[in-house]
Amino acid sequence: MESYRIFNGQYKHLVQYQARHQPTESRTKYQYPVPETIFDCPPLSQEEEAAFIAKGEKAFKTFLDSVLKRDASFIWNFVGDYDGIRLMEGDIPGFKLEKPPYRAFGKITATLEEIAYLHAFETRDKCDFYRKHHAQDLLDMFPLYSFFERTPARPLKQMYIKWSALSSPVPIIKNRDFVFIEAQDEFRLSSGRRGWAFCQYSVDVPGVCHLQDSPLNLVRGSVSHMGCAYIETDIPGVLDAIYHISSDLKGAIPHWVRKIGMKHRARHLAHLNEYVRKARLNSRYIIPKPHSWPAPTSQRCTICDQLKGYQQIASCHSCGEVVCTRCSRKKLNLSKADTNERERICNNCLRKVRRDSLSDGSLSCPTPNSEASSESSTSLARFSYRSSSVGGGSDFDAIDAASVAWPGNKARQNSDPAAVDLSYVNAYGENLRKTKSLPLMTQPKRVVLFDPTAFQQQPTPVEDDDEGNATVIDESHIDSIMMTNR
């Protein structure tokens, strides 16, 4: 009891000391979102803008080189599987990394245009929409500068300088904020597959001061070539996603706390599937509430033919059919997300949303159609790719596109080993290693499907000029980007 009183007295003394020496304004909880006038950002000169654009394009190219190439010096440890997303932790044998990088892999049911639309941050409203529906761990985010306008000629290319505040996964650690340049662009593989990626790289911007001594009490962190690449697969409407997380949160943060934050970021890929389904559903015609369907006159569900006495009967707000509660779902209307208003949608309409692309919806962008994820049945010769910011210094070796099993190549599909798409198998080949802390029974077996050294190397093609087509990225090392072991 005596020791308890001593400890209790010391604790009260510590709390009183901290309260006396803490500024009054810092004790007040600051509300998010913060006003954009918190930073005094002067207009950039032409030289400063050109320097930022060059830095963003260089970071974007370096990001693609590091993500789409096999790095023999790195070993990737399996951390876990979270909602179908596999999280890996990078390691260099013989060298202890204080801040190891992480990579998350998964498949997303979406198109490149839908993903690019989600990552449009020209205005504060778009940033708030992204935070509420996709990144709930972001306290606030808004653009400081925007360098390009989305046009029909360049619908997927954009570059911003943004400020964002990230909540800490545990209360004992302060929240972080970041100032970075984000480059977005599409690219093309040598087989003809399209891809889209964004890369974030920390920069110093005049007028953007540190906020650690402000009421926000934010610690300024940094990111280095962090981003995500989305690549078309041979399945229409399905993308391979590679999320590379490389950040320095500053301060003494335990490894287990950092890993919790990485798990939260990895789950963002899984949330993309649900978001895209909601966006597609929201793009369909939803009958407004004042003109909603009258009370259903039928006493039977049109799907299961169940009588009203067994299930409650209601009308679908998309097609108007009479359905029961078991054959329908209440879905959040994204246009009314602030009111949490939900609309009843039947299972038939939901299946159509999952199956159909968004070619005629509100999220569609005026871009060239893709043979893979955009479900175009035309040939690759029809594609009119624009110029890309990817440089020509990549030393990728090409996999012959003729050997790839495209959806329209039914004659060779699944009949010849050479017809199998080898672009996305064996995540990191022989360099894959499981985390030792995982129980042996939970470690998935590594399956080596092929030997990448059996392919003959081909020279890197020359990059097209700014007026030509997009840069071609060869695929010799892209066999190492997606996990196949379950």
Automatic annotation (TrEMBL):
InterPro entries: Rab4/Rab5_effector, START-like_dom_sf, Znf_FYVE, Znf_FYVE-rel, Znf_FYVE_PHD, Znf_RING/FYVE/PHD
PROSITE patterns: ZF_FYVE
Alphabetically ordered keywords of this record: Metal-binding, Zinc, Zinc-finger
Example of a GO MF term: zinc ion binding
Region (Disordered): 358-378
SUPFAM superfamilies, per the entry: Bet v1-like, FYVE/PHD zinc finger
Bias (Polar residues) ranges: 359-369
Pfam annotation, one family: FYVE
Organism expressing this protein natively: Thraustotheca clavata
Protein name: FYVE-type domain-containing protein
Domain FYVE-type: 295-354
